[in-house]
Amino acid sequence: MLGGGSWYYLLDGVASVISGYLFVMNNYIPMFICLGFVVISTILSLGFRDVYEVKPKQNQKKEKILKEYGKDLKSSFKFIFKSKRMKSYILFQVVFYSLIKIIEIYQSDLLVDIGMPEEEFSMIFAVLILIGGISITLKRKIEKKFKNRTLAFLSIAYILATIMVGTVSSINPTKMIVPIILIMYAIQNISKSIWFILEAKYLRNFTNEKTRNKITFSYEVIGGIAASIASILAGLMLKVVSIENAFLIIGLISLIGMILVLDYMRTRFGLRPNQYSKEDIEFEIEK
Questions:
Q1: pLDDT tens digit sequence for 19-42
Q2: Could you give all domains of the chain from N- to C-terminal order, each with its CATH number?
Q3: 175 contacts 112 by C-beta, under 8 angstroms
């Protein structure tokens, strides 16, 4: 059966296929549809009600609230850097998520460079998203087969596909290699989609209801900053090397980085509960 995340990706894929056809007809149609959905979701959000009654503290000033929030955030960062398990997981996220954001920039550029019309690759990416959504059904089978090596399998598969794209396109940057590139793109989308589902699952395993928001926010901040910096540097790289060589260079750099991270995670992540230290599990807000 499909979970909530699976349905999200499947619906996202179907919507992308539809928007791809509409883009070919008129590239303004998808934009207006997106604007319509934004307006609808904004209106719906105004009707939300708190599940639990919120009792505002009348005498609490904004400065004090911000100070307490900053203190909680500082504590969550301290926990992250103290916990070997959490630190290894964030290192994995920094490398893998940064690579994903870079490749998202490179993928369309490469197709344009080898002569694919923009209206065609808009359809291609729509189908790739649908493939990624359908692949979510393989999540349990992959977890069952690879167990605590699941993250290694997904990341290495994504990186090897990146290296293959860079190698093939560097040798023959023409439309002849499009089938190979699309197969590699499909592998990347499958790995990425399953990773995004597992990412949320592992974060839940690290936290409880009281600490989840604080640690998740810190986790997302670190990953977002790292991915932004990596994307800027990867964009600047295109000024000195071709998109084909950039694929290959980024893939090789990511492979080296991921091997080092996976080796670091080997004795710190995916262990039995009794093998973790107190600092790896317990999160406490400083008084």
A1: 777 777 777 888 888 899 899 999
A2: 4-48+64-269 (1.20.1250.20)
A3: no
Q: What's the whole-model pTM score?
A: 0.80
Q: pLDDT digit string (tens) for 112-146? A: 888 887 667 767 877 887 787 778 778 888 888 88
Q: What is the 3-state secondary structure (H, E, C) of the chain?
A: CCCHHHHHHHHHHHHHHHHHHHHHHCCCHHHHHHHHHHHHHHHHHCCCCCCCCCCCCCCCCHHHHHHHHHHHHHHHHHHHHHCHHHHHHHHHHHHHHHHHHHHHHHHHHHHHHCCCCHHHHHHHHHHHHHHHHHHHHHHHHHHHHHHHHHHHHHHHHHHHHHHHHHHHHHHCCCHHHHHHHHHHHHHHHHHHHHHHHHHHHHHHHHCCCCCHHHHHHHHHHHHHHHHHHHHHHHHHHCCCCCHHHHHHHHHHHHHHHHHHHHHHHCCCCCCCHHHCCHHHHCCCCCC
85, HSE (Cβ side, Cα atoms, 13 Å) = 19
Cα(273)–Cα(11) distance, integer angstroms: 36
Quickly tell me which residue has 């499009």 as its tokens. 178
- The token pair at 181 is 């590139």
pLDDT one-digit tens code per residue, 189-202: 999 988 988 887 87
* Tokens linked to 94: 């920094």
* CA angle centred on 181, ends 120 and 226, rounded to 5°: 95
pLDDT, averaged across the chain: 80
